[in-house]
């Protein structure tokens, strides 16, 4: 799971620390796409309405997989372990 989180962090997909409402997933997606958080939230909800049954799965899965901004900053500051 750490590999997935590191890949998300490398691509700029992190849960936002500021302007978050619940977990920061939509704000993080909006930041990555260059959108305001409210615009990203509306688009996210509209997308979930198009994909039936996904409403209960997508947000929690992204919440788990996307690293928080704090943890991704801490990983950048720590040197990678040798070996």
Walk me through the topology:
Blueprint lengths: L1 H9 L14 H9 L3 H14 L7 H8 L3 H9 L6
Structure description:
The structure is a single chain. The protein is an all-alpha fold and about 80 residues long. It is built from five helices and no strands.
Provide a brief overview of the structure.
The protein is an all-alpha fold. The protein has 5 helices and no strands.
Beta-strand portion reads under 5%
Taking the alpha carbons of the first and last residues, their distance comes to: 20 Å
The largest pleated sheet is described as: none
- Please, what is the average pLDDT? 76
Shape, please?
globular
Number of helices: 5
How many separate domains?
A: 1
Q: pLDDT under 50 segments (min length 5)?
A: none
Radius of gyration: 14 Å
Would you report the number of β strands? Answer: 0
Order of helices and strands: HHHHH
- Tell me the structural class: mainly alpha
Helical content band: 55-70%
Essential attributes:
mainly alpha; 83 residues
